[in-house]
Design a protein that fits this description.
The protein is α+β, with helices and mostly antiparallel strands. It has nine helices and nine strands. The protein has a seven-stranded mixed sheet, with helices on both faces. Strands 7-8 form a two-stranded antiparallel ribbon. Helix 4 crosses helix 5. It is globular and about 50 Å long.
Length: 268
Amino acid sequence: MSVCTTKPVGHAVSVAVLFSLVSACSLPTWAGRSCEEQPLKVSAVTNALALAERTAKQLDASGAKVAVLARSGQNLREYGLRYSHLGLVYKDGDVWRVLHKLNQCGTDKSSVYREGLGDFFMDTPYEYVAGIVPLSADAQQKLLPALKNPAPFAGIHTRSYSMVAYPWAQQYQQSNQWALETLAVALGAEQTSRESAQDWLKDHGYQPTELHLSTLTRLGARMTAANVSFDDHPNYLRFTSRIRTVTVDSVFAWLQRDGLGTAEWVVR
């Protein structure tokens, strides 16, 4: 697991210094993105830090120690989806940290990262907006130890990545799916395994989002892309252009429906 931490920066520090601090600790890869060398703009840094600060205040105001946090990296509203990526956020002393999975440079590989809120929003998102669903008190108590020490949950992570991984298979795993399965194991799955996590999710009524192939094409999911595979989907779905996968919106809806999370908080 890669860890990148920076010390809190006071308001008196100049934008240029903030820019240098964040740039020095930026992750080299982003979920579903290529690794094009593009320097961060000062406006992107200031916007990301402003959203991070407001998100931290909202998390503090919620009274929660653990929540599910989403960002809007891509514009998916045309397809009924508001957010594109989620992580598991928790309070570590006076600091909020995010544990989440990222695709490496548009390849078929991925890793799990722990980072601060500023880095989480540094991906030049489509919209500087965050979605927060604080977890129930019981869910927080069970999940917090796993977030602080995820080593016992290493078996939940599958490095092979597909942006549209099928929710009930183990061949690939996308970012939102990793967070959901980690949550399932922490909350009560019988074994620390992906199969056990998925069985628990089925028993607790999780329902993935169903997309159509034409939609995926418009989203830029090319058939030849290394980080997009369809061979883990059942033929009866794949051959009728019905692709089911884990989305932020489906996770948020399920958490609230199953009583595992409270109402969503939106931060701009």
